[in-house]
Amino acid sequence: MATARAGLAAVPDSLAQVGKLARYQLREYLRSRRFLALVAIIGAIGAILTGLLGYYRPSALLGGGLAFYSDLWGGVTVVIVLAAVFFGGDAIAGEFQNKTGYFLMGLPVRRTTVYVGKFLAAFLASVAMVLLFLAIVVGNGVFYLRAAALPWQLGVSLVLAIVYLAAVLGATFLFSSLFKTSAYGFVLTAILFLFGFTILQELVTDLVGIEPWMVISYAASTITNVFGSGVNWGLAGQSSTVTEFRTTTTTWTAGIAEGVVIMIAYLVVTAAVGLWRFEREEFT
Amino acid sequence: MSPPSIETHELTKRFGKFTALDGLTLRLEGTKCVGFLGPNGAGKTTTLKLLTDMIFPSRGGCEINGISVQEDRKRALSAAGVLIESPEIYPSLTPQEALEMVADLRGVPPAERPERIRTVLSEVKMLEWAHQRVGRFSKGMKQRINIASALVHDPEVVILDEPSTGLDPRGMAEVRSIVRDLKRSQRLIFMSSHILSEVVDVCDEVALVDKGKLLFYDTLENVTTRFADGHGTVDVAFARPVALESVRPAIAGIPNVKDCTQLDPKRLRVRFEGGPDGQGRLLEALVGLHLGVIGVSESESALEEIYLRQISRGD
User: Fold this and answer.
1) Chain B: residue nearest A97 by CA?
2) According to a count of CB atoms within 10 Å of the terminal CB, is the N or C end of chain A lower?
3) Is B45 helix (H, G, I), strand (E, B) or coil?
């Protein structure tokens, strides 16, 4: 052990610490079994899609680029929820449950730094999964559609998917910060984003009869809406009414800007509440 | 530059109706090792967690080097190396990477990092494992890495919560050796433990807590003098085996000896009165008996007796 102290090092500012923490956390994610498992799951989904396309060659899909991408790329919302569950479900709760938090919290870092650094790492790991799915979809698109392989709408949809990913992760981190057991974060995120919000959206539309602007799954529909004709870029949704067998059904289509605002609002609110919660959580 | 310090003011922590720590006021200053003693549930870990902002006080506060931990944990902990409750390190990282992360977040200059990491890994005898993943390590190996991470930035203040937990006897001895080395480097070490021999071995001062209250804080020497009711205890080592029955009359004949017991074939424990003067007379008399005395050491049992007496008073 050195007998003369070299002098206390200057602790980096919090922003720099966020980047450093995210880098090491991302390394942890990339080496983890869960990363490999998710790659395998997305690979399997891609293989099934590719197999079904190759076997059935559905003319409705292969006839036009936009329909093809709307249907295939639409599956990215499931990939996003899976990635959020895998990388965010235990991001905060795991620090308590696995006692890794005791290692981090002994360091001169603000709790906000830990939260944001871990969020950034989970976000980047999840983006890698989204890009993997994109590669599978685009690979199929290039093979079947050739010239029409890459419509510009796909780029917009990718951006919307990334914003949706941030919002889902924000909520996942919030759930994770509410509990000291990882399983609750996993289950709550999966249930809410795979079924819960969709059911809520239906209830708001059908029973209350208003635009479900407060439901994130409605905002996420912009990811596929962008491939439709006459895209609504605005801040307000558009309704359409269909009457069949004396029953009138109203459906709402979210505007692209509206969807982005809703998703960002989800991110901001869940991140603020999650941070507030983590700042007050004790490592007992 | 002022010496490193740890200070608590009326530090209190309640968990519901249970008071884990009750108005602890303590000022540690200078370069030394302070043992923080107490039975399980006495409030030792609670105090150290409050000192590192892992939990929040119900009342009072604490400072490291004059900086409030509660108001600015980042600045307060910048000068401290901390090991609380045998933490887990991210399993896919290697010790080298884990220590790089700590050094990086603490702002250790990149040029100094390799040497610092090598030094602390060598100190905790984990150099040969530097590039293996931590997830495969035993509890004791992880604890060594935790100790290394508390030291990698060469801190002024070291806070250790039962550092030898999970280690085998050799590991425990190595931890003591590490702490003794740390003392040579002008640091303030605050170490909780319930292993009295560890405290006697490495600490200069001792604070005893029980049921959340500080019972005493003083130098080890003062504590044994103050609380020993005028009695002292030494362990006497002999060159060859001795039978208690054969030497007892001679030893009991020394004026200030109160009691004598056999520890093992070559060691006796002698209780005496008269403080340091009495101890001096005892040593002279023992040597004069020509029984083959080769060593006399202050007994660990002195602190143990005080510890047990103080704890039982609170029951």
Assistant:
1) B88
2) C
3) helix
Instruction: Break chain A down into helix, strand, coil percent, rounded to 5.
Output: 70, 5, 25
CA distance A97 to chain B (A): 10
Q: Judge whether A194 and A110 are in contact, CB under 8 Å.
A: no
* CA-closest candidate to residue A89, choices A161, A19, A199, A194: A194
Nearest Cα residue in chain B from A25: B90
User: Taking CB atoms and an 8 Å limit, are A8 and B15 in contact across chains?
Assistant: no
pLDDT digits (tens, 9 = 90+) for B219-261: 987 877 666 666 778 888 988 888 888 888 888 888 888 888 8
Pairing of strands B157-161, B80-83: parallel
Pair A214, A208: CB distance under 8 Å:
no
Of A32, A98, A109, the CB nearest to B105: A109
CA distance from start to end of chain B: 44
Interface test with A, best of B13, B65, B69, B90 (most A CBs within 10 A): B90
The C-alpha atoms of residue A214 and residue A197 are separated, in whole angstroms, by 10
Considering only CB atoms, B87 lies closest to which of A31, A102, A280, namely: A102
Q: Is A165 helix (H, G, I), strand (E, B) or coil?
A: helix
**Nearest beta carbon to residue A110 from set B49, B55, B73:** B73
A63 class by beta-carbon count within 10 Å (0-12 exposed, 13-18 middle, 19+ buried): exposed
Of all residues in chain B, the one with the smallest CA distance to A101 is B87
Set out the domains of chain B in order of their start, with CATH numbers: 5-224 (3.40.50.300), 228-313 (3.30.70.1560)
* First-to-final CA distance of chain A: 32
Side-chain half-sphere CA neighbours of A260 within 13 A? 13
All residues of chain A having their beta carbon less than 8 Å from the beta carbon of residue B185 are 1-5
Given a contact cutoff of 8 angstroms between Cβ atoms, the answer to whether A99 and B83 are in contact is no
A105–B52 CB contact, under 8 Å: yes
Three-class DSSP category at B117: helix
Alpha carbon distance B75, B60 (integer Å): 19
ipTM metric: 0.84
Give the rounded distance of the alpha carbon of B84 from its chain centre.
Answer: 14
User: Which chain A residues contact residue B106 at CB under 8 A?
Assistant: 9, 11, 107-108
| A226-270 pLDDT tens trace | 998 888 888 888 888 888 777 778 888 899 999 999 999 999 999
- Rounded-to-integer distance, Cα A46 and Cα A65, Å: 18
- As to burial, measured by CB atoms within 10 angstroms (0-12 exposed, 13-18 middle, 19+ buried), residue B275 is middle
Which residues in chain B have Cβ-Cβ distances shorter than 8 Å to A11? 74-75, 78, 105-107
Task: Tell me the nearest-neighbour CA distance from A45 into chain B, angstroms.
Answer: 27
Mutate to test the interface with B, among A14, A28, A103, A281 (most CBs of B within 10 A): A103
For residue B110, what is the DSSP state?
T
